[in-house]
Amino acid sequence: MKALPTSIPDVLILEPRVFGDARGFFMESFNQRVFDELTGTRHQFVQDNHSRSARGVLRGLHFQTQQPQGKLVRVVRGSVFDVAVDIRKESPTFGQWFGLELSEENQRMLWVPPGLAHGFLVLSETAEFLYKTTDYYAPQHEATLAWNDPDVAVAWPCHAIDMPQPLLSAKDQQGLALHQLP
Ligand SMILES: Cc1cn([C@H]2C[C@H](O)[C@@H](COP(=O)(O)OP(=O)(O)O[C@H]3O[C@H](C)C(=O)[C@H](O)[C@H]3O)O2)c(=O)[nH]c1=O
Question: Which sequence ranges are marked TM in the entry (predicted)?
């Protein structure tokens, strides 16, 4: 597995080693020792999540104000545009975002450390999204940064979904602006 830097210092792209043969492929999708070496951290994961979404669905941008979750995210079917936003007020990259395509084709993963907001836009007919988190779900602490906050200005590839607006949950339609975050 390789780690590639991004525009946000501790957000990393992880590229697994894929062993293909006539039967298909094998890869280690997670290895604690390798993860620790590549990220320089000792995070332990306590929860695995799996969501399926249709084209044009946008989930996010979510974070937990307490019990912040680090997330190791990947796509096993289809393709998404995945985004992390640095909302750590003391960070030199506060307010900046990083995004990339995660897909079953490129097998890429994104490591999103605790304290950032995270979300994705589905580009394929459907997408199966799997991720590990470093702390438990805590709905009482969950919040949403507005996907279209002009101060963050995420360049979502909405042209690729062939619809006027992404499909958002009621909760995500009520996202906060960056300047409103606690
Ligand atoms: C996240 C989560 C949700 N749920 C329940 C709560 C709701 O009844 C239902 C759907 O929840 P929600 O609409 O918040 O699911 P997503 O919009 O996919 O939320 C996720 O979306 C973006 C991509 C993220 O980065 C977060 O990990 C996560 O917030 O699952 C649970 O029981 N456990 C959980 O860990």
Answer: none
